[in-house]
Design brief:
Elements lengths: L1 H8 L15 H4 L4 H12 L4 H4 L15 H13 L6 E3 L6 E3 L3 E3 L7 E5 H19 L1
Antiparallel strand pairs: 1-2, 3-4
Length: 136
């Protein structure tokens, strides 16, 4: 089943015909250590290895020469690598601020939340007050 997910969730899947594992999806659904190593060996020589890494994190099996856990580890590492001096615009106050002025947020591609810390805190307080005002 994970191979089907990979096929359905990968945009522009024309490259899949060029993959070293084409037609061998059972190998990519590896579970035991021996099959995982065989799948990784197949991926090592694959001409489309980079395209194979799925855009979503919930795809199981071997893809791009990595297990799901290894891909998750790489994604976390990429999120943490913020360039020094990077800036971001806060949509609440419309100011451009250093990345350090935003709370970390692993769910965002930038690795930080959308609103700066002061705006985030203000919004949080406003959300807390709303239920109290509605009850009055």
């Amino acid at each position: 089943m994970p191979a089907t997910l990979l096929t359905l969730t990968t945009p522009g899947a024309d490259w899949m015909r060029q993959a070293a594992c084409a037609g061998r999806w059972d190998l990519m659904d590896a579970v035991d250590e021996e099959t995982v190593e065989a799948a990784k060996h197949t991926c090592a020589a694959c001409p489309v290895r980079r395209e194979c890494v799925p855009p979503r994190e919930d795809v199981d099996g071997i893809a791009g020469g990595m297990t799901a856990d290894e891909r998750a580890k790489v994604r976390r590492k990429i999120r943490r690598q913020r360039p020094i001096g990077a800036e971001k615009r806060c949509p609440e106050c419309d100011e451009v601020k250093p990345i350090g002025e935003f709370y970390p947020h692993t769910g965002h591609s930038s690795g930080v939340g959308t609103a700066c810390k002061p705006c985030h805190n203000r919004l949080r307080v406003e959300r807390r007050r709303k239920p109290r005002e509605a009850a009055s």
